[in-house]
Amino acid sequence: VIDTIADVSAALDVERKEGRTVGLVPTMGALHRGHAALMGRAADECDIVVATIFVNPLQFGANEDLAAYPRSLEADTETAQRAGIDLLFVPASNAMYATAPLTSVTVDDLSRRWEGESRPTHFAGVATVVAKLFAITGRCRAYFGEKDYQQLVVIRRMANDLSFPVEVIGCATERDDDGLAMSSRNAYLTPDERTVAPRLHQALQAGRRVIQDDGVRDPDLVMKTMRETLAPEPRFALDYAAVVGAHDLTVPPVLAGELRLLIAARLGRARLIDNLGVTV
Ligand code: PAF
């Protein structure tokens, strides 16, 4: 476990000098099976893997759950070790941001849509910390879950726009048996809310079915299907249900090519997001 920028950078420089490839798995901790899958894949594909645990204050809005965000360093260390992680970078907030940063990385357009509408500063916070982690780590393959699909698209674009020597790799979402996507924020669900939570995934599946099985190409009809699947459960407060181009995240007039169904809703204390891919 390393807690300073200088030490982790130096350790990875030594590995690369000796010809080893580096994998990076950035996380905010509260590790679950989804994180373990990213780490396992990174360990399979790279010689040395560093995972980071840092609850990044920049990506939380003023009224969001920064203070309450689940923290479990001891269990996380075990999970990371079991998943094949070699180095765990766990900086304190004042090690990452010794001085309050005046620099912010904004990935325009992609950041303003969907999640960005209810969380206007979120993706600048994510892009800034991930750019910093890329700069600290150096040349590597970096693994992110498709669960946060918009985040993945934003990070890919940022890495490309800024020419980081980093290959960004998206990994399939891990789900519980009933379809609920693994997320650290599922910890906020009461047992009762947990039983209805999979309806979010069912709404995505219903949207995908009308595209794939019924040949629907009108995005409004698909979005209506998703909304109607969620509606009978009044505990959900829907934020958005959309079908978008997989790369530009805009709703096309007619559905074609690589698409992504996106959904976000509040359920009790938890704000849940999920997505599914479909190609027509
Ligand atoms: O997905 C997350 O856990 C975070 O947004 C990330 C990518 C580690 C940046 O803080």
Radius of gyration: 19 Å
- Taken as a percent bin, the fraction of beta residues is 15-25%
Question: What is the residue-averaged pLDDT?
Answer: 97
* Quaternary structure of the protein: single chain
> How many E-type strands?
8
Number of helices: 10
Class by SSE composition: alpha/beta
Q: Widest sheet: strand order? A: 3-2-1-4-5
What is the percent of helical residues? 25-40%
**Distinct bound molecules:** pantoate
* Overall outline: globular
- Ends apart, CA distance between termini: 46 Å
Largest sheet: 5 strands, parallel
- Low-pLDDT stretches are none
List the helices and strands in order. Answer: HEHEHEHHHEHEHHHEEE
Overall description:
The chain has helices at 5-17, 33-45, 73-82, 93-96, 115-118, 122-137, 149-161, 191-196, 199-212, 219-230; strands spanning 22-27, 48-53, 87-89, 140-145, 166-171, 236-245, 258-267, 270-279. A hairpin with a 2-residue loop joins strand 7 (258-267) and strand 8 (270-279). The strands form two sheets. It has a five-stranded parallel β-sheet with strand order 3-2-1-4-5, with helices on both faces. A three-stranded antiparallel β-sheet has the order 6-7-8, with helices on one face. The mean pLDDT is 97. With 280 residues, it is of the alpha/beta class. The structure holds pantoate (PAF). Pantoate binds next to strand 1 and helix 6.
